[in-house]
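Researcher: Hi, I'm a grad student and pretty new to this. My advisor asked me to get structures for two proteins we've been looking at. I'm not sure of the right format, so I'll just paste the first sequence and hope you can take it from there.
Model: That works fine. Here's the first sequence with its structure tokens right after it:
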Amino acid sequence: MLDRDSRRDLDLALLGQQFGESTKIVVLGESLDDASTVTLLRQHSLDHLIADADDPDDAELVITTVKLVRNDIFGLEKYLAWGVMVHEKDISGYTDKRAVLLEIAEYAKEAGARRQAVARIESVADELLMNALYDAPAVRYGVRARIGERARAGLGPLGTENAKVRYACDGRYFALSVRDNYGELTKEAILDNLARARAERGNPRIASGDGEGAGLGLYFIMSAVTRFIANIQPGVATEVVCLFDIKATGRESEACARSLHIFTTTGETPLGRLDGADPATAPTVRDPSTMPRS
């Protein structure tokens, strides 16, 4: 782990080469609002950044270290107080998604989240589910999913795999996760959207033509959450965990994510596929001819 001063005195690329590709560097004190941060994160060994250098959350540091050491990367429980009840549902399509979004919003209200926080939580849940149900299989099979059109037409996802949504609150953080059976999210895609989040926060440019999710994408999520965690087993599963500080107020509540973590594993890890099936068995894909045409 390196703080800002230490990082400036070291060549991170050289450090990564000296310790090998398996080296994971955690940097403290860099802001995700800083354009140079994306350049910094694009280095191979740097997958973790925590902005709160003056008062870092000890629990976050411990959780990050334990996940790296144990290769046990999945699960939002790790980020919440012990004993918190976690709610979860399998989502197969648009109708399921609409129903669970209402449930999540109501739960957030009951947990004490302010109105603006509830709106952000619901919007992020919507975007994550669209990514899991539509984007991920489209990337897997090289098909332009035209997500917005499929959703408006009431068509199901391109793939046949369910997504799993989980949510809970411990009084300080509202945690939300969505997991798919594709594992197609990449660090490069996350960082590209982080750059866009920094550039367009406060005046997001709606995507046109392809209907990417709600038109806001991962870059919207980056500007709406307190912590962003991506757990990826390439070709097997992706789980995105988002934490919202429901006690934050004013500018603090509107800031870009204060920490970013990208965990990637290629070996055996708990909770890979949702159904425990052999990862070598590829999910099937729906007939692209059922997609709306422009």
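Researcher: Oh nice, that was easy. Here's the second one.
Model: And its structure:
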Amino acid sequence: MLDTLFTYFARYGYFVVFLGVMLENAGVPVPGGTILLAAGSFAAQGNFHIWSVMAIATFGAMLAALSFIMLALVWRWLVHHEDWNKKRLAAFLARPRIYVFRRRYAAQIAFVQDRLTPESYLGLHLTISAIILIGSAWLIGGIAACLIILLVAFSRMCLGLHYLSDVLAAMVEGLARLALSPTAVETVRRRKQMLNTHIGQTRARRQLHA
């Protein structure tokens, strides 16, 4: 595998490091850590600059994190502008080509909608099945996730990719992030609640003065 990575490094350069680290941090099952270690070995041979590898890997990880933030912001915008989005969707569906497509495949579209909407019989069953599946995954997934974390940590040490100190440091970092996440969410929720209260009080004062 190392020879294969070296071949990719020689052919595509730093882009392999950037893409591997970015995809791994985005949740895609790509061995970004292995690619980064191989890039360090490639740099030790004088083919890469180690500081360039570190900078590009950091940029890829930050870009992956920013992509999740952008998706959250887009989802928030869609939720807050639901009426406007519905109007835009209605205007899009009213376009001649889209209208012709919907008329041509009306039976197929109705078939899919009838079986995926909660109001229909099969749609209701699919919805209940999805809820049961998500609930089971939530209950069992906690145990499975812990086992996967331990197995991954053990495999990194067995393969000689990390020391025990590296694995323990990564676990401490993960626990720190897990501890900070509820605090951050609660802080944002309280700020939003205070903002809504302030807006409500301001509107009430304006109505009283009017």
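Researcher: Is there anything I should tell my advisor about the second?
Model: You could mention this: The mean pLDDT is 79.
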